[in-house]
Amino acid sequence: MSSDPKLADSGRHRCDNCSKVWDADELKDFCDIMQRLDPGGTVPSGECPECHALCYPVEPEEEKDVWGESEKYPRADWKYEVANGDTNQGYWDWVRNKKMLAADEEKSDGS
Ligand SMILES: [Zn+2]
Predict the structure, then answer these.
(1) Which residues form the domain of 76?
(2) What distance in angstroms lies between residue 57's CA and the mean position of ligand 1's atoms?
């Protein structure tokens, strides 16, 4: 049940630009989605009603605890990368990026 793809449609979605979080039914449909998609990136959920940037699904763990941290990708690691200038992303964006990279690696393992 937890992997039901419909959950993404009914959840919360965060604007990539202004970081506001919206319900799915608050988002505007976008008309030029194909031109705005990043190759290999997360498929956006819709358009921010305020600034018209793209919005992406918020993972429940992010929504619950803004100041928390991912078990797998601790804040200490993120701070280390920030200190080294390896990333200028916010913590949860960084975690999301790490998860995507990990998923890509799993795929290329061919297990
Ligand atoms: Zn916005």
Answers:
(1) 64-110
(2) 13
